[in-house]
Amino acid sequence: MKFMKLGSRPDTFYTCEAVRSVSSEVSSDLIIQVKGSRYLLHKFPLLSKCLRLQKLCSESPESSSHQLVQLPDLPGGVEAFELCAKFCYGITITLSAYNIVPARHAAEYLQMTEDVEKGNLIYKIEVFFNSCILQGWKDSIVTLQSTRAFPLSSEDLGITSRCLESIASKVFTHPSKVSLSQSHSRRVRDDVSCNGGESQRHNQAIRGWWAEDIAELGIELYWRTMIAIKSSGRVPSNLIGDALKIYAARWLPNISPRDGNVYKKEGCDSDSDSTIEMNSKHRLLLESMVSLLPGDKGAVSCSFLLKLLKASNILNASSSSKMELARRVGVQLEEARVSDLLIPSLSYKSDTLYDVDIVLTILEEFMLQGQSPPTTPPRSKLGFERRRSRSAENIDFELQGSRRSSSASHSSKLKVAKLVDGYLQEIARDVNLPLSKFTAVAESIHEFSRLDHDDLYRAIDIYLKAHPDLNKSERKRLCRILDCKKLSMDACMHAAQNELLPLRVVVQVLFFEQARATKNGAKVTELPCNIKALLTANGIHPSKPTSPLSTTNSIRADDQWSVSGLKSPKSRTSTLRMKLAEDDDLDINDMNPNGIGRSSKFKAFCAIPTQPKRMFSKLMSMNRNPSEKK
């Protein structure tokens, strides 16, 4: 830190009965009142350098031997005035980055200009400021911080703008050419490896050596400093992101889901001025940081963005800030973790533990950023393939069709699908989570993104256990998002014995498992006793001998459709669809706004070979009781 000494006389100021005076052979003739302090001084040294005191003395009448002058609004207060007064007496004063701003304002107020006397205080302060303060890194930051006490006048005098320019220009230079802070110098020494070389972390710290020092600034000055740094275009966006992360760690409170609930209670029950002021301060800080986020993908981590989003929820930040954070998270959602998405819900309109709506917004942004016009295949072929059912054969085609975007985009969708299924398992435990929100999150991911449905099935199982009061229709609607063909052997075994699942799902799981075993040439395993009892209780006789599933033309007579008059394959397919639609209760109330009401199981069922269709339809028709048929 640099400093400058002015004057050569020793300090002779003293205090007597709450009055400050200066030792002199000449009696004092001037009383100056500065706020709550009184000074007994002399006109000659003060008036010779202060034009304002000259004017005030000429306007006020003299009383007895002392003339009274009041300076109630002198910037910097008693300390700044005494510094100027000592300069007038020639007493030694020391200027540094810590007191140069109040001294400059007090000198401006007293009009200690060159017009009054050559080499006056304003001139000397400006020389020191330009030649020393602005040349030093730490001096510039300390001086900029001290302008917070005089924001408007510092702008008028050009102190703030010059400090900002100085700091921004030094960010572009190598730290060896500036004076680093003590904490950074110690960190650099710790990062030097044992063989004398520099570690990778050290090299990264060298590039962002400035971030921790400017993190000491208040948010207003920090925002302006970062704007000046960003506008130059010479600092990589990832270093800007690192600097924002350091600043957030320095000033934002550490918030977890449990802290969020406490914060909510404090915000509701406490109306103290300090709490309101603290909330407003943190809200302003957060919204300012959001506006500083670099636009490049990966400049800041997805985890950091989600922490900001969690804080914005708790601090009740503006909707524009939340949407901006959600948009940025959606761009790089594949980097997120399940714990990052567990954003506490503080809405008074919902009793859910987590804010599912903001996650739905993030998922929508993620799906939008991967879309692009199709380049292949031709329209006619694409239309034909889209009309085909989602069978195991055309899943590969859809994966290829999804490559209209980059391979990295497809890989990210697979990661996000796993992420969403893990998120569903967490929020499924919330007893207040509506079924509509659970299914909305599950259906927000394209079907081809889920290579298997084991994690999705686990989430559905957790939701069914946490919501035992779901009726039959709701359980059916929940299970429509599940594709039994994509369940592993272990998941199928668990689902076959899961009494919480609708019976049709259990039968479908058994059917697909037996069809898969037959296709692979394996022996069809015997059904568990409890499953046999469950099927028997619902009118299905598993002990009745049935031939193994086959794709040959030899079909047993009792496996044929029992509906007369439907002999052609086309008519059989129509009847099958009607029966499945009847069992699924696909009425107008279950249809989505876009008209898509049937689940993926219906499309997958239509892709099953002829004989398995007949057998499964027979099982389903036997399963329905008279009330269901109605």
UniProtKB/TrEMBL annotation:
Cross-referenced InterPro entries: NPH3/RPT2-like, NPH3_dom, SKP1/BTB/POZ_sf
Keywords from the named record: Ubl conjugation pathway
GO biological process, one term: protein ubiquitination
Protein name: BTB/POZ domain-containing protein
Organism: Tripterygium wilfordii
Listed Pfam families: NPH3 (PF03000)
Family: Belongs to the NPH3 family.
Pathway: Protein modification; protein ubiquitination
Keyword Ribonucleoprotein attached: no
Record keyword Repeat present: no
All copies of domain NPH3, residue ranges: 208-516
